[in-house]
Amino acid sequence: MQSPTLQGRSILVVEDEPLIVMAIAQAFEHTGVEMTTTNTLRHALLLVEYDGLAGAILDHVLPDGDCSLLCARLRARSIPFIIYSGFPKLEGACQGTLHITKPATDAVLVAAMVGLIQNAGISN
């Protein structure tokens, strides 16, 4: 079922495990969201500069570093994001962010993103 809140929105997924990327894509498959994925911090830092990004789902630890710089950049651009990670403690720019521990159900991930976008007041 498509979600009016997510329909046509652009979501960035930053995750280095292919099976988890596939699971996240499947969770959002019927929401109408447009998803861009990457598995490195370096590429993610480039992707967050594009206009129209409505939200992001981030793994905290990536092969080329933790996502602290990415969290800071997303905050500076007022883009809501979720940390979806098995990493138990977040510090620095990622502290205080919505943190969902892996694994989570599809409904939890989708509801969290819907809530963030609604709370941020992002319009189409």
Task: Write up this protein.
- The strands form 2 sheets. The chain has a 5-stranded parallel beta sheet, with helices on both faces.
- It has one domain: 3-Layer(aba) Sandwich (Rossmann fold), CATH 3.40.50.2300.
- It has helices at 18-28, 41-47, 68-76, 106-120; strands spanning 10-14, 34-38, 53-58, 61-62, 65-66, 81-85, 98-101.
- It is globular, with a radius of gyration of 13 Å.
- The protein is an alpha/beta fold.
Task: Quickly describe the structure.
The chain is α/β, with parallel strands linked by helices. It has helices spanning 18-28, 41-47, 68-76, 106-120, and strands at 10-14, 34-38, 53-58, 61-62, 65-66, 81-85, 98-101.
Order of helices and strands: EHEHEEEHEEH
Strand order of the largest sheet: 2-1-3-6-7
Give Rg in angstroms.
Answer: 13 Å
Provide the CATH top-level class.
Alpha Beta
Uncertain segments: none
Number of domains: 1
Under CATH, the homologous superfamily reads Response regulator
Number of helices: 4
Beta-strand percent range: 15-25%
| Named CATH topology | Rossmann fold
Distance between the termini: 19 Å
Q: Helix/strand-derived class?
A: alpha/beta
| Main pleated sheet | 5 strands, parallel
Give helix % range. 25-40%
CATH 2nd-level architecture = 3-Layer(aba) Sandwich
Mean pLDDT: 89
* Overall strand count: 7
General shape:
globular
